[in-house]
Amino acid sequence: MGGRAASGNGSQAAGGGAVRAPRLERGRSALGPALELVHTGRAPTRAVLTAELGVTRATAGAVAAELEALGLIRIDAKPSAASGSQGRPSHRLSVAEDGPVALAAQVHADGYRVALVGLGGQIVATTPGCEIIDPDPAHVLRSVVEAGTRLLGASGRRCVGAGLAVPSAVAEPDGAALNPLHLAWPVGAPVRRIFADCVHEAGLDVPAFAANDVNLAALAEHRHGAGRGARDLLCVATGHRGVGGALVIDGRLHTGSSGLALEVGHLTVNPEGRPCHCGSRGCLDVEADPNAFLAEAGRAPGPEGSLLQQARDLLHDAADDPGVRAATEVLVDRLGLGLAGLVNILNPDRIILGGLHRFLLEAAPERLRAVVADRSLWGRSGGVPILACTLDHNGLVGAAELAWQPALDDPLRALAVR
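Structure for ROK family protein, as requested:
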């Protein structure tokens, strides 16, 4: 997984009691895999858990009981069989609705949002979107963490960790944001360290993480949304400004040698187009984002609401306007050219689109798919499914996945009280 860097050992931060010693020794190594199976919905029953883990029924039962004792999952007391199924009924498994949470935050060009996210990618509580951004990352992230601690205090939940999504490539292993230009933050700002410092200053003794927002959206969608079941998943999204991409291969983010892979925003799709901050012209970053859509439609950005909200509202509320229809076709064609190039290079088995791209797909699905098929070798050989992201706030859910990962790796260690 990209964008992970622990800043401390997980411990109790809000609510919950002491974690007792495990009742099983054999099978302890199966606790993490078992929790991930329930977390991602791939083990809805104890019978499925037994088969997926490749252990005995007794061991799977002990593993599930231990996860329940840790307050992470719930086991249905009465076994049930699916309609039409044969064989012994099995106990249903689900994540604990009152269990621990991760503090998740997403910062973007028009503000930030904070949430508490439980297992299963379930958003427990969220703040209203804040539309104030400061050029000092420490000032912004301190406000983010303060908002998160207020949510935690109101919920009474235990916190397992904190995750941050930012609209920038985040270098590994130091956690520096290399191109946070849409935030007006300094190039190379050490966002992971700053975020961890703010978390600890707020009295939360939990690990803190930070990564690129589209990487985290792709991770969330792969585990809980439109990307579930894909082997090679390509995600392309435009948020409030700019365009980002991410690739999940065999369940893991492909982040490259230093966390900088899939900077798809700098694919050229219009050689005579707008100048890009990278020094080139006509990059996807400036030709297929909300600002570009408003410009193509002949609309100036208004003072109210984010650019993303303004573009989405225009697409929905004025779809029959000739200028809006023309702008939709132009951006769909540019996006399709970029996707076709990526399909030729990456050969994904599924593409998911987020942000404004999700709404462009819904507005002109056949046109977008035709452009990709016509301009890509693999598209002509059968086509690549192109789907809309399905999770609301997938960047926040992905940020929470970072924070949950230590518990998914080793629940006993991550939840131990020190």
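Residues 228-388 form a domain with the Nucleotidyltransferase; domain 5 fold (CATH 3.30.420.40).
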